[in-house]
Amino acid sequence: MNIGLLSYWRNDADRQIRQRCNHLLEKTGVKRFIWIVGDSSDATEEILRNWEDLDPRIEVHRLDTGIEGEDIETRRRRISETETLAYAVLAKYTDLDAVVQHESDLRTSKDVVEALSAHADGNTVVAGWPTLRTRRDDTVFYDIWAYRGLDGEHFTPYEPFHPDYRKDAPFEVGSVGSVWFAPFAAWVNQQVRTEACVELCRQWRRMGLRVLVVPWIAVEQPRDLWVAS
């Protein structure tokens, strides 16, 4: 299976960008790394294009929305518009069978792409389980905005998380985020305006796709790259 890894970058030049590039490029089972730079005002694009020159698997795309502002609603609208532009770009990658969207600041195992795809078919979206280590040195469920149950309710940081949660088996949900796999055709030319991955999953479910979480596929939000919102 030919799989692309899609990641987004914005003003990351001083946010461990080289370590993050290396971390993504270590992933096995990836044919193409598709890196999207949006509305960035520092050297992020220049740094990523230097990597692009060194590795033929990488393609960097600059996709600006022109949306300014850092309040949470504006940020989500900017992210949504950037993703819509990226899904139009994906249409050219007709050699791919599937795409994994992997936020560029998250940490996963080298074989995460293969681990996700092992649970997928042409009718399934598959996500991992994102966590964050707190200052108290305990681990909480991280992506409480994007992950929602079949009832539309948010997951919570601590167990039992949500009634749909299962510790030892993949379970179906309404929406996911952070790191997830979907068939190539499901991505192409999708449009989201205000709710990014939540809106995308909602559309996919209307198309008949199932959205699964595999709770033992670990996704880590590094504390030193996390900004509370």
Architecture blueprint of SSEs:
Layout: E1 3-9, H1 17-25, E2 32-37, H2 44-54, E3 58-62, H3 72-89, E4 98-102, H4 112-117, E5 124-133, E6 139-141, E7 171-172, E8 179-183, H5 184-187, H6 196-206, E9 210-221
Parallel strand pairs: 1-2, 1-4, 2-3, 5-9
Antiparallel strand pairs: 4-8, 5-6, 5-8, 7-9
Relevant terms:
single chain, 229 residues, alpha/beta, Spore Coat Polysaccharide Biosynthesis Protein SpsA, Chain A, nine-stranded mixed beta sheet, 26% helix, 24% strand
Written description of the protein model:
With 229 residues, this protein is of the alpha/beta class. The protein is built from six helices and nine strands. Strands 1, 2, 3, 4, 5, 6, 7, 8 and 9 form a nine-stranded mixed β-sheet that branches. Helix 1 links the parallel strand 1 and strand 2.
Brief account:
The protein has 229 residues and is α/β, with parallel strands linked by helices. Helix content is 26%, strand content 24%. Strands 1, 2, 3, 4, 5, 6, 7, 8 and 9 form a 9-stranded mixed beta sheet that branches.
